[in-house]
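Can anyone check this?
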Amino acid sequence: MDHKSLRYLMDHPNLNMRQHRWFDVVKDYDCVALYHHGKVNVVVDVLSRNTASTFVGGLCMRICINSPLLELIREAQGEGIKSEHWKKEKIKGHISRFSTDSYKSLTQCGQIWVPSFCGVRQTVMEEAHKSRFLIHPRAAKIYRDLRLNYWWLCMKRDIVRKDKGFDVIWVIEDRLTKIACFLAIRESSLVEKLVDVYVHDIVA
């Protein structure tokens, strides 16, 4: 299968639904799509080759993704791990259980520790809340998803507080591409607030 077109994913003016979903996944990452002919690549996935055919145009794509969120978390960990901040972070009894993963992030039982510095907790929760292709998840679902990869004390309480207050789902449909966006808002929100939400989550 020829995946050379993925090189133009970020610049293509007309994307189909599948490409839109891929675009939504990679748009927040600094990624590069590298294109290689199959005959140049020595290690080739056997499932992409048909041994009964003489076709030699097999292709291999590699996408390298680096999340800026991990870098923000590492910077916050550098501040939070200082002894004068242990009390604020409530991690004095957890220091001995911390370990460093392959990305040089501090983890506990495989979960990345998210300190309160630099607003990274807020950023992590906001990323879990917003999606252009899924209905707004509730606090319990967000907590179950986040705890698979992240950890901090009183995580569930913070997520519930973040989720509290939204009582309406604002549905915005693009009639050309048939894409529907679901945004959590308050019924009492003023027009100015709705404009800000629209520009931030749809236009930006």
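Reply from J.R.: I decoded it. Residues 51-58 have pLDDT under 50 and may be disordered.
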